[in-house]
Amino acid sequence: MKILVAVKRVIDYNVKVRVKADQSDVDLSNVKMALNPFCEIAVEEAVRLKEKGVAEEVVVVSIGPKACQEQIRTALALGADRGIHVETDAMPDSLAVAKILNKLVAEEAPQLVILGKQSIDSDNNQTGQMLAALSDMPQGTFASEVKVDGDKVQVTREVDGGLQTLELTLPAIVTTDLRLNEPRYASLPNIMKAKRKPLDVKTPADLGVELASKISVLKVEPPAERSAGIKVASVAELVEKLKNEAKVL
Amino acid sequence: MSILVVAEHDNKTLNPATLKTLTAAQAMGDDIHVLVAGENCADVANEAAKAAGVSKVLHADNAAYGHHLAENLSALVVSLGKGYSHIVAPATTTGKNFMPRVAVLLDVAQVSDIIAVESADTFKRPIYAGNAIATVQCDEAIKVITVRSTAFDAVAAEGGSAAVEAIGDVFASEKVKFVGEQVAASERPDLAAARVVISGGRGMQNGENFVLLEKVADKLGAAIGASRAAVDAGFVPNDMQVGQTGKIVAPELYIAVGISGAIQHLAGMKDSKVIVAINKDEEAPIFSVADYGLVADLFEALPELEKALS
Q1: Hey, are the CB atoms on B110 and A94 less than 8 Å from each other?
Q2: The domain that contains B231 carries what CATH number?
Q3: Which residue from A minimizes the CA distance to B264?
Q4: A249 and B CB contact within 8 Å
Q5: Does B100 touch chain A (CB under 8 A)?
Q6: Quick one: DSSP state of residue A210?
Q7: Average pLDDT over chain B, rounded to whole?
C-alpha cells in the first residue's frame, strides 16, 4: 500500500521564541527551522511500515515557501521515497491545508495518511481531523500504537483518562502523538541519496484551492511573566508560608 | 443568535471542564444550549440542565455516541449546529478530536484552545507552546471554538432549570469501531480538575519512589502528575504527564518535586495560583517560576512534609 505523510517546516523546538517589537508576529528571521517533531514521528512510522513490508511507497508532502523543500529532503533522508511540495508564501490556515491535502489524497489514493497531531508553532491540532472529514476516511488521532492488519488498522490513542483503541477501515487517517516511536537519525549516505529522490512542485492554484483565511491575527504578545518568589530554608517554613501567607493549606 | 456548547462527560457525570467552558460561552452571548451526546447519559443531561446560564439541553442518547467517536459526534453536531453563531467545546482530547471535523464540514476555520474572550468574535490563544499569546479575530458565520478550560472559572453547577429536549438523530459510521480502553482507575482527583497537584520529575529516580509523593498527596487530597522526563524514563504512565505535550493544569497549589523546569513542563503548569518547587539543584529553572522554593534532597523533604501535614 501507499502511505502519504504530511510534514510542516517550523521553528526548531530548541529555539527560544521571541515576539516582534511591533507585536505583529513571532520573530522568525535568522531562526533555525526544522521538521515539526510530530511530523518527524509520522515519517518514522511510515518508514517502519515500509520496512515491515506493510507499505510499498511513502510519499511526503509539505505546503509552504520554497525553503520547506529542506524538510521534504529531511523526510526523504529518513526513508520516504518521493516528495510533493505545494509552494506558497502565504500562511494557509488548517482549513486550507486540509483542502490541499484532500486534493492530493484524491490524486495519490493512499491507503493510509499519517500526520503529526499538531505543529509546534500554531498549536492548532486540526489538520488531520479536517482532512479525515473532507476525505470521508475514519480517523485515529493522537496515536501511540498503529497496527495494520489486512484492510483494517488498529490505532491506540492517548486520551485524557488513559488509552483508547479503535479499529479503522482503510483508507484511514492517523495523527501521531509523542510516544508512537523515536525517530531515527538520517545517515550521511541516506542524506546524499535523498538529494536524488523525485520531488514534484505544485501550487495551491494547480489544485484549485483558495488560501484566504477568515481568521486574522490582531496581535501577538509575550505571555505574562511569572516572577520568582522566595526561597524557604526548611519544610517547616514552607508549610507555615503555605498556611499563613498563601493560604492554600 | 444562540451558542451551542458540547458537553464533556463519561455518560455518568458532567466533566467540570464543561462548566468552565460555559463561562467562556457566556462571554460570547447569552442564549446557551448544551448538547449532551452519549449512551445512557440522562443523568448528565439533567446535571447540565441545572448549570447556571443554560437555557436548553439537547440530549442525544444512543450507542453510536457512547464512546464519543469523532465521526459520529461531529456528524450530530453539524446537523444541529447550523443555526448557531458559536459552537464551543472544551479542548480536551475528545473536543480536540471531533471539533475540527465540525468546522470543516461547515466549511469554516476553527479557533483552538482559547484562554480569553475579548468579544463575540475576538479571542486570545497561546501559540508556540505558550511562549506567545495571539489575539485572533474570527469572521466566520459560525464560530467553531475549543476552550482551554483551566483558563476559566466554572459557572455554578446548581441553580439553573433548563428544559431537556431529546434528539433522536443517529449518526453511526461503519468505518470505525471501538475496540477497548484502558482507563487509569484512581481514587485521587482528576489531574485537570484537582485543587492541589504534586508532580515528580527525573529526580524521583524510579517509579517506586512515587510512593513518597502519594503519601503527601493523601494528606492534601492532591492529584499526582509527572514531568515528561519521568514519563519518558518509564517511571509512570503517560496520562500523568503535565506539560506542553501532556496535560495543562492550573490548580490552587502546584508542588514540583525533583523537576528541573524545562520549558515544555512550565507550559503545562505555570498558570497555577501558587507554585512550590523542591529540588536539590538551586540553579534549576523551576525556581524562577516558583513562589516558594526549597533547595533540599527530596528523599528527606518529602517524608518531612508528610509529617508536617499530619
Answers
A1: yes
A2: 3.40.50.1220
A3: A13
A4: yes
A5: yes
A6: -
A7: 95
* Nearest by Cα to B127 from A89, A90, A91: A91
- If asked whether residues B158 and B225 sit together in one domain, one would say no
Q: Is residue B178 part of a domain?
A: no
Instruction: In whole angstroms, give the CA distance from residue B277 to residue A190.
Output: 45
A27 touches chain B (CB under 8 A): no
Q: Report the phi/psi class of residue A117: left, alpha or beta, with left for phi > 0 and alpha for psi in -120 to 50.
A: alpha
Q: What pLDDT is stored for residue B184 in this prediction?
A: 73
What's the rounded Cα separation, in Å, for the pair B281 and B279?
5
Taking residue B303's Cβ as centre, other Cβ atoms within 10 Å add up to 14
Q: pLDDT tens for residues B64-120?
A: 999 999 999 999 999 999 999 999 999 999 999 999 999 999 999 999 999 999 999
Q: For an interface test with B, give the residue of A24, A26, A160 to mutate (most B CBs within 10 A).
A: A160
Burial of A191 (0-12, 13-18, 19+ CB in 10 A): middle
Condensed to tens digits (0 to 9), the pLDDT of residues B259-293 reads 999 988 998 999 899 999 999 999 999 999 999 99
Cβ–Cβ gap A138/B192 under 8 Å: no
For residue B267, give the C-alpha cell.
507550559
| pLDDT (mean) for A211-226 | 93
B90 reaches A (C-beta below 8 A): no
Q: Is B297 on the interface with A (CB under 8 A)?
A: no
Burial class (CB in 10 A: 0-12, 13-18, 19+), B269: buried
Collect all residues of chain B within an 8 Å Cβ-Cβ radius of residue A173: none
Q: B23-39, pLDDT tens digit by residue?
A: 999 999 999 999 999 99
CATH of domain A2-223: 3.40.50.620
Q: Is B64 in the same domain as B124?
A: yes
Cβ pair B94:A144 closer than 8 A: no
Contacts of B273 in chain A (CB under 8 A): 248
Q: Give residue limits of the domains in chain A.
A: 2-223
